[in-house]
Amino acid sequence: MTVTSVVRAACPHDCPDTCAMLVTVEDGRAIKVHGDPAHPTTMGALCTKVSRYPERTYHPERVLHPLRRVGPKGSKRFVRVSWDEALGDVAARLQSIAARDPEAIVPYSYAGTMGLVQGESMAARFFHRLGASRLDRTICSAAGGAGLAATYGGKVGMHVEHFAESRLIVIWGSNSITSNLHFWAFAQAAKRNGAKLICIDPRRTDTADKCHQHIALLPGTDGALALGVMHELIGNDWLDHDYIERHTEGWPKLRERALEWPPERVAATCGITADEVRGLARDYGSTAPAAIRLNYGMQRVRGGGNATRLIAILPCLVGAWRHRAGGLLLSASGWFAPRVGDAALKRPDLLGGRRPRTINMSTIGDDLLREADERLPDGSRFGPRIEALVVYNSNPVAVAPESPKVLAGFRRDDLFTVVLEHFMTDTADEADFVLPATTQLEHLDVHTSYGHTYALINEPAIAPLGEARPNTQIFRELAARMGFDDACFKESDEAIARQAFDPARSGIAFDTLREHGWAKLQLAEAPFANGNFPTRSGRCMIDSPTLGIPDHVPNHETPATTPELAARYPLAMISPPARHHLNSTFVNVTSLRAIEGEPLVEIHPDDAVPRGVVSGALVRVFNDRGSYLCKAEVATRARPGVVNGLGIWWRKLGPDGTNVNELTHQRVTDLGAGPSFYDCLVQVEVAAPATA
Ligand SMILES: Nc1nc2c(c(=O)[nH]1)N[C@H]1C(S)=C(S)[C@@H](COP(=O)(O)OP(=O)(O)OC[C@H]3O[C@@H](n4cnc5c(=O)[nH]c(N)nc54)[C@H](O)[C@@H]3O)O[C@H]1N2
Ligand SMILES: Nc1nc2c(c(=O)[nH]1)N[C@H]1C(S)=C(S)[C@@H](COP(=O)(O)OP(=O)(O)OC[C@H]3O[C@@H](n4cnc5c(=O)[nH]c(N)nc54)[C@H](O)[C@@H]3O)O[C@H]1N2
Ligand SMILES: [Mo]
Predict the structure, then answer these.
(1) pLDDT, tens digit, for every residue of 449-483?
(2) Which helix (H) or strand (E) holds 142?
(3) Cβ contacts of 113 within 8 Å, gap of 6 or more
(4) Ligand nearest the Cα atom of residue 296
(5) What domains lie within the chain, and their CATH numbers?
(6) Considering every ligand atom, which ligand is closest to the CA of 111?
(7) What Gene Ontology molecular-function terms does this entry list (predicted)?
(8) Is the C-beta atom of 203 inside 6 A of ligand 1?
(9) Residue-wise DSSP of 27-61
C-alpha cells in the first residue's frame, strides 16, 4: 500500500515571491511540489524552475558524501571520505589558522537558501565564536537597500497585493515575468481593469513586450530619468504640495537640481526621446493611484544608490502614498527586520568585544589576492592574508564579479577552502573539502520575504539523501570539534526556528506557522498615507544629513567618463537573469537547460551587421579583464549600443569554460559598496561562423 502525505514547505530561493509550497510525498519520496492555492500571493502557482525541485533534489549528480581533494587545485580530482575524517580535518585546519589569527578565516555565503535557520543561524554563531572575519553581504541589493534606507528609513514599501488596484504601474528595472512572477499576476489584474503599464529597462524583455509602453534607456541612467520626471512635475504643477509639506524634508534643494534637467538633457543622457520623458511624467503626474515596482536590476551600476533615492522620492512628490494602491515597492524585507530575532539567531555577542575586520563579498577576487597588511585604497591596512574560506549557500566562482581574479584567488595553493553544496559547482570544483548539504525538501526552516509580507514555514518532507546534512548540523559538529561548548551550539533546528520570530513583537507564533503554513504581518494598508516613514522624523528624507541631496551619478565605464576605454570597447553590457535559472542555480537541471539552450549574448542588428555577427555565430565578448565565448542572437531585445549577456551560467558549461563575469569589474556602487555588474564596457567579434 502506498503511503501518501502532503507537507507544507516554502520556496527557499533568492526571489521576491517566496512561495508557499505543498510537497506530495509517496513512500518517503517527494514526487511533486505545487504552489499553495490558499496562500494569497502564491495563488497555487509555482514558476517553471521551482516546479522542477524534485528533479533537482534527486539529480544523479547530487553530492551525497563528503569529498576531499586529491589532485592539484582545480583538477577536479576528489575522493570520498567519511564525515568523521572530513570534519576532523577541517576543524584541525581551522583551529591551527585561528591559533595564529582567526581573521585569516572568512565565511562566504549568500542566499542559496533564504531560510532563517539554514542561512545565517548556526553558521553565524560559529564564525562569531571563532572571531573570523565578517562578511559584508553586498552582492545583490546593497546600493538599492542603502538608497531606500536613506530615503524611507528602511526597506519598506507597498503590499504587493495592492498593485491589482493601481491605475498606472511603472515596472522599473525589473523583468517581472522572469524574476517576480507573482507580482506580475497582480499587474495583469490591474491591466484587465484598465491600468496602464510602463516598463523601464534597457532590454526589451518578455515583461516589456506585455506592457503598454517600453522605455529602453541606457544602463545606469535611471537617476537622470527620475530628475527629468521631476522637472516636468514641477513645470506642470503635478505636485501634491500638501504631502510634500507635511511628510518630506529637503524638497526645495532637490527642486533646484531637478530644474537643471529639462527633457532634452535627460533624453541625451538616457539615449531616449524627450517625448518619452514628457509622456512618462504626464502619466505619472496625472494618474492616481500610481505605483512603481522598482527592482534591483537598476542598481547594479555605479550610481545605483542615488538612482534609487531619486526614484523613491517620486511617490512623495505626487502624494501617491495616500492610496494603498499607490507608492513604490523595491523590498519588503524591512517590515520583517524589527520582528526577526536576529540576535538570538546569530549571537553576535559571542564575539565578546572582538571587532574582526569586514570583507566585502563583491571584491573577493581582489581580497583573495591581497598580501598581509597591504595598504587599501582608503589608506587602511588589510590585516592578515586570507588563509581559509568556508563557502555555503553561494557559488562565488560563477557569480562574483571579475572571475579571472576570483579564480586565481581560489587556485592559491596556500588557501584552504571548504564548500558546503548540493552539486559540484564551479566553486566546489576549487575546494579542498566539499561537504554535502541538504536541500529544502530535507530540512526544517522558516522564511520571511522581500516581495510580500507573509512569514512561512518549511517542514522537512523527506529524509536527507545519502549522507547529506543540513548546514546547521555541519556547523554544530564543527563547533563541537573545535571545543565551542556554549549551549547555543547544541540547539536543534526546531529550537532555532522557534526563536526566529518573537511572538510578542512580531505577532507570529511558530505553532501558527506549523498549523497554517504561513502568517501575514500586521501592517497598515497604506503605510505612508500620513507620513510615518521609519525615519527619525517620520518624514521621507529627500535631503539626507549625511549624503546631501541625490544626483545622477554616471557609470564607472561610459563614453563620457572614460572615452579612451569606450573607443576600444564601445558596447555596454548588462547581464540580467535568464528566466529558467535562479542566479547560477538550476543551470544543471536537464529539463530547464533544454529550455535556456546555451550561453548567449543578444546584440542589436545595428551593432551586429558592421561586425559581421549573425544569429548562431560563436562570438568573443571581451575587454581588458577577460574574454568570454558564447553564441550570438541578433535581436531587437537588445537596444543599439547595449548587449545582453544572460546569466548566470556555470563557467564549465560555457564553450570555453568562462561565463559573463569574466568581463565584469569589482568597482563598487556609490552607496552600500555593492557590485556594478551592469556597468561594463565590452567589444564583440565573430569567433566562428554560425552553425546550424
Ligand atoms: N527566474 C529568475 N528569477 C530571479 C532571479 C533569477 O536569476 N532568475 N534572481 C533573483 C534575484 S537574486 C533577485 S536580486 C531578484 C531581482 O532580480 P533582478 O536581477 O533585479 O531581476 P530582474 O527583475 O530581472 O531585473 C533585472 C532587469 O533590469 C534590467 N536592467 C539592467 N540594467 C538596468 C538599468 O541600468 N536600468 C534599468 N531600468 N533596468 C536595468 C535588466 O535588463 C533586467 O530586465 O530576482 C530574483 N528572481
Ligand atoms: N553578471 C552577473 N552576476 C551576478 C548577477 C547578475 O545579474 N549578473 N546577480 C547577482 C545577484 S543579484 C546575486 S543575489 C548573486 C547570487 O549569487 P549566489 O547567492 O551565489 O546564488 P547562486 O548562484 O544561486 O548559488 C547559490 C548556491 O547555494 C547552493 N545552496 C542552496 N541551498 C543550499 C543549502 O541549503 N545549503 C548549502 N550549503 N548550499 C545551498 C546552491 O546549490 C547554489 O549553488 O549573483 C550575483 N551575480
Ligand atoms: Mo540577487
Answers:
(1) 999 999 999 999 999 999 999 999 999 999 999 99
(2) helix 142-152
(3) 12, 13, 119, 393, 440, 445, 471
(4) 1
(5) 67-140+342-438+468-491 (3.40.50.740), 143-330+528-541 (3.40.228.10), 563-688 (2.40.40.20)
(6) 2
(7) iron-sulfur cluster binding; metal ion binding; molybdopterin cofactor binding; oxidoreductase activity
(8) yes
(9) TTEEEEEEE-TTSTTTTT---TTGGGHHHHHT-TT
